[in-house]
Amino acid sequence: MKRILIIFAHPGYHRSHANRAMLRGLKGLEDVKVHDLYQHYPNMFIDVAREQRMLRDYDIIVFQHPIYWYSCPAILKEWMEQVLEYGYAFGPEGNALKHKYLLAAVTTGGSAASYSTTGHNHHPITDYLLPIQQSGLMCGMRWLPPFVVYGYHSVNDPDYLKMKGQQYRRLLTALRDEEFTPQQLHNATYLTDLLKEL
């Protein structure tokens, strides 16, 4: 059984429908910890030593956040710059995160159709996640297919949001319990592609 740490970054959590539904879906899930960066560091002064100690105890690291201007919220970028430092996360002696898994669990204002070569955003969401993916690879981490909730600006259906929260819980449970083979994880574009294999 693997332990999962969710690095959660949302500056307007009280206004969020999609991210709240995702976190509600994880209530009571054993070996899954949610670490809210804006709650712990409202002034963005990150306790690097504390964060590095915490990372040591987990096998799967999840970056959960909304997509803002095709990137992550500012505090997550600050966290990456401060915590994933040379000598700790990369460089000749920087192997603290080696072989841990990295998952992006993101929400977008745009629809799935808008994130395509023919859509409004001109690229799939996976293209916009490349900086996070490459950062993880530089740290020796294993990239997992992302979990994406599209169209949060237009979603008002509580049943749909509850379903997405249940999907998130089921997929994280499967990752925790090692229900997927390395080949399944490698072949999937999105984590939800694997639902039919459960």
TrEMBL record:
<dbReference type="GO" id="GO:0010181">
    <property type="term" value="F:FMN binding"/>
</dbReference>
<protein>
    <submittedName>
        <fullName>NAD(P)H dehydrogenase (Quinone)</fullName>
    </submittedName>
</protein>
<feature type="domain" description="Flavodoxin-like fold">
    <location>
        <begin position="2"/>
        <end position="170"/>
    </location>
</feature>
<dbReference type="InterPro" id="IPR003680">
    <property type="entry name" value="Flavodoxin_fold"/>
</dbReference>
<keyword id="KW-0560">Oxidoreductase</keyword>
<dbReference type="GO" id="GO:0009055">
    <property type="term" value="F:electron transfer activity"/>
</dbReference>
<dbReference type="InterPro" id="IPR046980">
    <property type="entry name" value="KefG/KefF"/>
</dbReference>
<dbReference type="InterPro" id="IPR029039">
    <property type="entry name" value="Flavoprotein-like_sf"/>
</dbReference>
<dbReference type="GO" id="GO:0003955">
    <property type="term" value="F:NAD(P)H dehydrogenase (quinone) activity"/>
</dbReference>
<dbReference type="Pfam" id="PF02525">
    <property type="entry name" value="Flavodoxin_2"/>
</dbReference>
